[in-house]
Every structure is written in structure tokens, then in C-alpha cells.
Amino acid sequence: MNGSAEQHSGDDVWAEPLPTAILVLADGTVLEGFGLGATGHAVGEVCFNTAMTGYQEVLTDPSYAGQIITFTFPHIGNVGTNEEDVETISMAGASGVRGVVLHSAITDPSNYRATRHFDAWLKARGIIAISGIDTRALTALIRDGGMPNAVIAHAHNGQFDLPALKAEAAAWPGLEGMDLVPMVTSAQRFSWDETTWSWPDGYGRQTAPAHHVVAVDYGIKRNILRLLARAGCQVTVVPATTSAEEIMALQPDGVFLSNGPGDPAATGEYAVPVIREIIARGVPTFGICLGHQMIGLAVGGRTVKMHQGHHGANHPVKDNTTGKVEITSMNHGFAVDRDSLPATATETHVSLFDGSNAGIALTDKPVFSVQYHPEASPGPQDSHYLFDRFVEMIAKNKAA
Ligand SMILES: NC(=O)CC[C@H](N)C(=O)O
């Protein structure tokens, strides 16, 4: 079936049942394909993700809110989906992903853990997808021109109001300046003790925590919480708008600042002042991705929008403190501008793909953060050591 959508071009296409889905870029380019998942239409920024596995974790990572993900790996969906590999806190909760672009049609699931076909899973989660797209060409377009805004639309009858969809794609303001944290943060405080998955037992529990960590949820992933629990922490997760006083009242041994969607600079009004206050009080603090960017802002730095961003599971990063290279999972479209950082912020990690900043540590406070995703999920586990670094920092601070 793949490829036949290309045969439907010209004016007659809108009278035919195919294509059943289209991707309309803000510049008016229309890519035709086959609809999967939910019907309807959605607008977002198109990014490409190069991970070969872990599509279920990617699509449930709240950091992708506002984005349409095109997978460069062609066989997405081939291991189906299961009830466990979900990264949103609410198992059925929407991550905010606006759409999925695939090369190949989805095959039947082939994995012992699969409980549902990927297409049915997309539909149940309200995610629109399109297959039959030349994802290599789309990726090359993004590499050359940056991440475009687009509308993804799916209709069984192949009827699309093209002028309206083009207008919507062109009018969408884009992720720069957009705060999407309120869409994905937890409404209420809760406690977490689940640890990581292993075969054949599945997930474990932390029954003897040594430290109490307050994790601020800007769109947190489950595997971050699991790794904090595994490292010996009892974790209290709090909503993104929690004040510094409320956090301090929980008597944290450490504070964790999570990943999350949108423009870090747009969260400046409520998140950054709280982070500044927590840092000033000398509480050991660890940030990942959006949390990293907001620490950068809190110490007076600047964040910038990237050209094509980093989304994948094979990004080499150098740890300047050890000289070691780790292969990391990445998902970001903004970055900390290293030249904007104060002298009290040391660059601890750097991306070996493009030299962009991948981590900082403060010299005068027990604070460090990374731009990438050490929790992986999906991706390599090279960077798990950072959770131990955080716990060592907490223990040292307690002993002081
Ligand atoms: N994974 C994240 O936390 C992403 C952070 C931010 N939204 C970015 O795109 O750069």
C-alpha cells in the first residue's frame, strides 16, 4: 500500500477516498498518506526522532507536547504497545503529542509484552498519525530548513478543507514563547516509591528510602521517578506552580526539577523565581532537560531555540568532569546558551554532535543539571550514574 498515495496527485485527489491523511506544512507544502489512530486534525511543530525503539515511551513523554513527531526509523508499531511502557504519570493521560508521521504501515504486534495494536493505542489516546510518508525527505527538509509548524489531518473519507488547514498551519505561533507546562503538570501532590523494571518481576518498590526528594513536575516522566526511588529516595511530586515555601515546608533533602514541554523562557514567571529561591537556600538540586534550562535561566543565563533540535537515543555527550563519553537519549528544541552563563556555572557536559551545552554545575551551590535524558526510557542507560551523583550530593550536604 505504501507509495500509492503518491499516485494521487493533482486536482482529482480530493474526490478520491485516498489520501486519508495529510500533513500540511506552514509554507503550504502538502504531504499525502494514510490515516492511522484518531481522526480530526491537530497543529504543532514537526520534529524528527531517530530512536529505533521505544516509540511508546516517546509518545507518552510530556516534553513532546505541541509537537508532531516524525520517526526516521521506518518500522514503528511492530512490537505493539503494552500497559507498562507509559511515561505520563496518568497511565491514560494525554502527553500532549499532536501527531505522528510514519514511513511504513503498522504491522501486527510481534512481542510477548504487547497487549494492543499500535493503531488502536493511538486511537484510544486521541493521537492522529499518518503513514506512507517519505520520512527521509521530510527529515532532510527539517535538517535544512529547521522544524516547521504543520497541521496533521486524518479523515476516513479523504475530505479535507485544504485552504483552512493551510491557514491554520501558517497562523500557529510556534513553540517559541509558548508555555505548555500547565497542560501536563500534575494537579495534585503525590508520593512515589516505584523503582525500575526488571525481568521477570516487573517494577519494584523502594521500601527503605534514605532521602526525601521533592520533584517539581513540569511534565515529569515515570522513569525519572523510578530512578530516584531506586537510588534510595522517597519522592514527593509537586505541581509546577508550587511555591518555594511550600517546597521547603516538605523538608526536602534534595529538589528535582523535571523535563517538560514548550519554551523554558515562557515558564519564567512562576518556575524560575522558585528555582532561584531553592538554589539560594542551598538545597541540593538536580535538573533534567526543561529543569536544566530553567536552572540556566535562574542563574541569569539565556535559552535559545535550536534549528532542528535533538530527538533520539544515540546522542554522544562528553562528561567534562571525567572525560568519558556517554551515549544519551535526547529530546529538546531549546538549549542553554553557554556564553550567557555566569562564572559560577561550569559547563559539565557537551553534545558531541553539535557542541551545544549538555550540562552545568554551580560552583557555589550543590546544583547540577543535564540537557539530555539520563533516565533513558527509551534509550541507553549510560547516564544512570547521574542519579547516584545526586544522591551522593544529598548525603554530603546532610553530613556537612
Ligand atoms: N525534554 C524536555 O524537557 C524538553 C525541554 C524543552 N521543552 C525543549 O524542547 O528544549
TrEMBL record:
Binding of L-glutamine, residues: S63, G260, G262, L290, Q293, N331, G333, F334
Gene Ontology MF term list: carbamoyl-phosphate synthase (glutamine-hydrolyzing) activity
Assigned keywords, A-Z: Amino-acid biosynthesis, Arginine biosynthesis, ATP-binding, Glutamine amidotransferase, Ligase, Nucleotide-binding, Pyrimidine biosynthesis
Coiled coil: none
Positions of the UniProt region annotated as CPSase: 1-203
Residues at the catalytic site: C289 (nucleophile), H373, E375
Catalytic activity: hydrogencarbonate + L-glutamine + 2 ATP + H2O = carbamoyl phosphate + L-glutamate + 2 ADP + phosphate + 2 H(+); L-glutamine + H2O = L-glutamate + NH4(+)
Pathways involved: Amino-acid biosynthesis; L-arginine biosynthesis; carbamoyl phosphate from bicarbonate: step 1/1; Pyrimidine metabolism; UMP biosynthesis via de novo pathway; (S)-dihydroorotate from bicarbonate: step 1/3
Keyword Nucleus: no
Entry EC number(s): 6.3.5.5
Sequence ranges assigned to domain Carbamoyl-phosphate synthase small subunit N-terminal in this UniProt record: 19-153
Assembly and binders: Composed of two chains; the small (or glutamine) chain promotes the hydrolysis of glutamine to ammonia, which is used by the large (or ammonia) chain to synthesize carbamoyl phosphate. Tetramer of heterodimers (alpha,beta)4.
Functional note: Small subunit of the glutamine-dependent carbamoyl phosphate synthetase (CPSase). CPSase catalyzes the formation of carbamoyl phosphate from the ammonia moiety of glutamine, carbonate, and phosphate donated by ATP, constituting the first step of 2 biosynthetic pathways, one leading to arginine and/or urea and the other to pyrimidine nucleotides. The small subunit (glutamine amidotransferase) binds and cleaves glutamine to supply the large subunit with the substrate ammonia.
Record family assignment: Belongs to the CarA family.
Name the record gives this protein: Carbamoyl phosphate synthase small chain
Primary gene name: carA
